[in-house]
Specification:
Radius of gyration: 17 Å
Protein name: HIT family protein
Organism: Streptomyces polyasparticus
CATH superfamily of the largest domain: HIT-like
Strand content: 15-25%
Oligomer: single chain
Number of domains: 2
InterPro entries: Histidine_triad_CS, Histidine_triad_HIT, HIT-like, HIT-like_sf
Shape: globular
Bound molecules: zinc ion
Helix content: 25-40%
Number of strands: 5
């Protein structure tokens, strides 16, 4: 399944230029055009899904499997790689810019330019417990709606 006007679908069809590093029946991995560090890869399902909400679980597993292997490949590549980040942006508020699911896999090293700015303060246990309850409620709702409900009831 592809979507007209989707650049990652075009890459998956071989109709747009990309520096491909890995391909199988369901997954493609290629160099990010704007690498945060040299070696920055994007792993995509070949079938179009805009975000996690419409990504079949099996496709997510296949994307993760490829990313896991590619993280090892980066460490063995000779590129500077003291660590690896996997990063997935789901939704505009999460800085998703191309609405075809993609998992970033990129080398990290001391002094590299990648930053995540956040408030990392420790929260109180009762607040964490209330938040956990909300997430469990969401998980039950997702399961009831036929979505991915991977935790036992
Ligand atoms: Zn697409």
């Amino acid at each position: 399944m592809t979507q007209d006007g989707c650049v990652f679908c075009a890459i998956a069809r071989g109709q747009a230029e990309a520096s491909v590093v890995y391909e199988d029946a369901s997954v493609l991995a290629f160099m990010d055009l704007q690498p945060v560090t040299p070696g920055h890869l994007l792993v995509i399902p070949k079938a179009h899904s805009a975000g996690l909400g419409d990504l079949p679980e099996e496709a997510g597993i296949q994307v993760w499997r490829a990313a896991h292997r590619l993280a090892g490949a980066l460490r063995a590549s000779g590129l500077r790689c003291e660590g690896v980040n996997l990063f997935l942006a789901d939704g505009e508020a999460a800085f998703q810019e191309v609405f075809h699911v993609h998992l970033h896999v990129f080398p990290r090293f001391a002094g590299d330019p990648f930053r995540i700015d956040a408030d990392w303060r420790v929260h109180e246990r009762d607040r964490l417990d209330r938040t956990a309850a909300a997430v469990r409620k969401g998980l039950a709702a997702s399961r009831a709606a036929g979505g991915p409900g991977i935790m036992p009831a």
